[in-house]
Backbone:
């Protein structure tokens, strides 16, 4: 994220952001308390601020929590992860009600909200910490992920091969408090205005949902 904040700030100075959508409603967690019967899905798709609002916009998702997965260092910090030396990727744990939204729908949203052909980056966010990863907790989840990759590949959705890593879930480390619900609390951040919110609005145009009423 840091890689384009300076450039985004210059864009703001030039007035290019004056046409941003001031009335866009940013989805938040509906509750911070676990719900009986809920399940957890874990995804990495670049900046976790972006991933939070993508999944929290979907009906049936209680919360998407930002954190770190896929690395080898215990108790990672944002500063450490951003060096690329811990092996972690910015990740979200998605807490959802399977009676209201399926794991398959979450996987489809995951692929629809990024460019899964990019390697160790998403847009101008560059580094292994921004790589695309779908974590699975059981064979059925793995099969669902692989089926979606096959569907997208067979449909020639992308010009390049899908580079998303499909790996077993091991450990999720929750990110620092200031990263949680970041876009909601910092709508005027240059990165949020020029990257996060436009990407979210594009996702809503392309993906059928289901969405929460905001």
Residues:
């Amino acid at each position: 994220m840091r890689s384009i904040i300076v450039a985004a700030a210059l864009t703001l100075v030039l007035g290019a952001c004056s046409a941003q959508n001031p009335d866009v409603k940013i989805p938040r967690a509906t509750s911070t308390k676990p719900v009986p019967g809920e399940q957890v899905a874990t995804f990495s798709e670049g900046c976790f601020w972006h991933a939070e609002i993508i999944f929290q916009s979907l009906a049936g998702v209680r919360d998407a929590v930002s954190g770190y997965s896929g690395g080898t260092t215990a108790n990672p910090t944002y500063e450490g992860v951003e060096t690329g030396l811990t092996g972690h990727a910015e990740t979200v744990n998605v807490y959802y009600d399977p009676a209201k939204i399926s794991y398959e729908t979450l996987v489809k949203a995951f692929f629809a909200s990024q460019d899964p052909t990019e390697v160790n980056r998403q847009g101008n966010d560059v580094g292994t910490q921004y790589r695309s990863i779908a974590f699975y907790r059981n064979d059925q989840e793995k099969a669902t992920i692989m089926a979606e990759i096959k569907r997208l590949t067979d449909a020639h959705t992308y010009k390049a091969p899908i580079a998303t890593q499909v790996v077993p879930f091991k450990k999720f480390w929750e990110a620092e408090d200031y990263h949680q619900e970041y876009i909601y609390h910092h709508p005027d951040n240059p990165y949020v205005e020029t990257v996060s919110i436009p990407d979210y609005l594009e996702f809503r145009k392309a993906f059928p949902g289901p969405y929460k009423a905001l």
